[in-house]
Design a protein that fits this description.
This protein is α+β, with helices and mostly antiparallel strands. The protein contains 14 helices and 14 strands.
Length: 336
């Protein structure tokens, strides 16, 4: 069975996450305003600049977000005191053995968060998301699971990016440039979805769901192009907030862990022949999370599995093919 951090560490993580979410609405310049688009409700910070009314996107409507607005109206400690309190929680987590980030990756994540990338729908996927389930699920990772990748993958829905009518500030391309990232060549001249750091092997990739043909799409809210991929819509639906224990904490969002696990089964089979090493890593991450979720959140895991299987024969076939290589994981899912 997966090992867990102490209950103190788990409580500290959720205290940090709650503090970061409260901080995200602490700098409202105007009045929270609801906007309905295509049957969905979004909240904006509406404020005047001269005679012009501007809207700054906050997030999609939820009970949790409305609760944050209510707490924001209450008396709050000074900003410096709040930052120090979060930094103490980060130190406690590091003492308890939580994974950290190297200074280069941590500062990049903080800069992207400060520009609004995650507020505007960006979702961390890939190994960086897997590492962040440590706090959500209170899991203690071993050395192989804790290995950090140089690649940072960020996914977002194209339609959400179009609907928000807000944009990252400073622009994402400027943030990446400040960290010595430059566009990597692509098959479409003048467009790219991958940014490579000039010193080292670090790579930032932007992704978006494909609904049919795959290719490059624009993400206006982030000001970048993204590679459209099938099956990604399933992964990043209903993402959750996550806290990175770096400095005074960084707020990002990641896929739901049960969706991440099932998606890895699909991805592993899809690229099995093209990249066996990555396929093995996909299956290892899926197996680890499924073992934890089967005990801690079996209903969520079952719902995610049934959702994926209901999306068509190709989805079912890829899940079945992956599980044929993972008999213990298949047994756990069969018992749900």
């Amino acid at each position: 069975m997966p090992e867990h951090h102490s209950q103190i560490a788990h409580a500290a993580y959720h205290d940090l996450l709650r503090a970061l979410r409260e901080e995200a609405v602490s700098d409202l310049r105007g009045t929270p305003t609801k906007v309905t688009r295509n049957g969905r409700i979004y909240w904006y910070d509406s404020f005047r600049v001269g005679s012009e009314v501007r809207k700054h996107y906050i997030g999609e409507d939820s009970d949790a977000l409305r609760a944050l607005f209510a707490r924001h109206r209450e008396a709050r400690a000074p900003a410096q005191e709040r930052r120090r309190a979060r930094a103490r929680l980060v130190r406690l987590l590091r003492t308890e053995g939580f994974l950290g980030l190297d200074p280069s990756t941590g500062s990049l994540m903080a800069a992207l968060a400060g520009a609004g990338v995650f507020r505007l729908g960006g979702t961390v996927v890939g190994t960086h998301a897997f590492r962040l389930y440590e706090g959500e699920l209170n899991l203690r990772y071993d050395l192989t699971q804790a290995a950090q990748t140089d690649d940072l993958d960020i996914a977002s829905f194209e339609r959400l990016s179009l609907a928000l009518e807000d944009a990252a500030a400073p622009p994402v391309q400027q943030v990446l440039g400040d960290f010595a990232f430059s566009p990597a060549p692509s098959l479409e001249p003048g467009r790219t979805w991958r940014w490579r750091q000039s010193s080292g092997n670090a790579l930032v990739e932007f992704l978006t769901p494909a609904f049919g043909e795959e290719g490059l799409r624009n993400l206006p809210a982030l000001g970048v192009q993204a590679q459209a991929l099938n099956h990604l819509n399933y992964l990043i639906a209903e993402p959750i907030a996550a806290a990175i224990p770096y400095r005074s904490g960084v707020l990002v969002q990641v896929p739901r862990p049960e969706r991440y696990a099932i998606h890895k089964l699909i991805v592993a089979e899809r690229r099995r022949d093209a990249d066996r090493i990555k396929a093995q890593k996909d299956r290892a991450q899926a197996a680890f999370l499924i073992e934890a979720l089967a005990t801690d959140r079996p209903e969520d895991l079952l719902d995610a599995l049934e959702d994926a299987r209901d999306r068509g024969p190709k989805w079912r076939d890829r899940i079945t093919a992956s599980l044929a290589r993972m008999p213990e994981t298949a047994e756990l899912l069969q018992a749900l």
